[in-house]
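--- STAGE predict ---
source: upstream dedup step, 1 unique chain passed
mode: sequence only
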Amino acid sequence: MKGGESVTEVVAALIWREDRFLICRRPANKARGLLWEFVGGKIEPGETGPQALVRECREELGVELTVGDVFMDVVHAYPDITVHLTLYRAALGEDRPKLLEHAAMAWIRPEEIPQYDFCPADERILARLMAGER
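--- STAGE serialize ---
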């Protein structure tokens, strides 16, 4: 990382339903448009990671979330932004996710990961999921 470059703190949710986990497709008009990712977003000033994740999932999917422990965190430098992504294990309540911001969503098995184009920051996380970690 270059001197003085700031890192953006980002949180995301690893949500399982039986043997599948939830992924969302970024809107076409956003950076990394139409790539797949875990639901989440930037931490706002004064928020903890879990608080930000609950807020983001409410905004993006219209769901209430129970946040568990950290599955993994990674730092990734894109050309326009460097992110510190913390992926939390999380569980949905009774709500069904709604597409409020994303272009699409899918519940996939780890072996289906190669069929989707994910954001590069997710690559190390996806490798752990394909290796059988939950």
